[in-house]
Design brief:
Order of helices and strands: HHHHHHHHH
Strand content: under 5%
Number of helices: 9
Helix content: 55-70%
Mean pLDDT: 77
Distance between the termini: 21 Å
Radius of gyration: 22 Å
Largest sheet: none
Length: about 180
């Protein structure tokens, strides 16, 4: 559950990205996963700090997210010295790896101007959090998961005995949960 709470470094980095890409209407970065998958956020971040490196409109109109991602990673490597640590095909998915994107954006943060306003940080804190849960919900989910694991183990043991018992046991448990 540690991954559900946004760390201060995530808030600051996300604030910096949102502040840097504010003038790019096609870009709305709200996380370190799906917001990056189309390649626009990486390119907007680079262009906002180094508009001399490429024509934004040409990149934004490229057909493929993989092309846009490849462009951004190549620009960062050639002009900023950041190794191409990510594969465009791995990022151009519905839910790319958060830690990989966070690491790469941190690399950009280290070489690009880093001013972050308090207003930008407050804005990030106000973003909708789909994964925010209360302590009670966390405990309830934990207990349900443990119970489900125990039932799965019990069901597996019973499965060699009689399939009718397994079906009725599973049906009863589903009703209780």
């Amino acid at each position: 559950m540690a991954g559900l709470q946004q760390t201060n470094s995530e808030k600051i980095l996300l604030s910096w990205v949102r502040q840097s890409t504010r003038n790019y209407p096609q870009v709305n970065v709200i996380n370190f996963t799906s917001s990056w998958s189309d390649g626009l956020a990486f390119n907007a971040l680079l262009h906002s700090h180094r508009p001399d490196l490429f024509d934004w409109n040409a990149v934004a109109s490229q057909q493929s997210p993989v092309q846009r991602l490849d462009h951004a990673f190549n620009i960062a490597r050639q002009h900023l010295g950041i190794e191409k640590l990510l594969d465009p095909e791995d990022i151009a998915t519905a839910c790319p790896d958060k830690k990989s994107i966070f690491m790469y954006v941190t690399s950009l943060f280290q070489v690009l101007p880093q001013q972050v306003t308090m207003e930008a940080i407050r804005e990030v804190e106000m973003l909708p959090r789909h994964s925010r849960v209360t302590r009670e919900e966390h405990i309830q989910v934990h207990h349900q998961q443990r119970f489900t694991q125990e039932v799965s183990c019990f069901t597996f043991l019973l499965s060699s005995c009689c399939s009718k018992v397994v079906v009725s046991l599973t049906y009863t448990i589903n009703l209780v949960l």
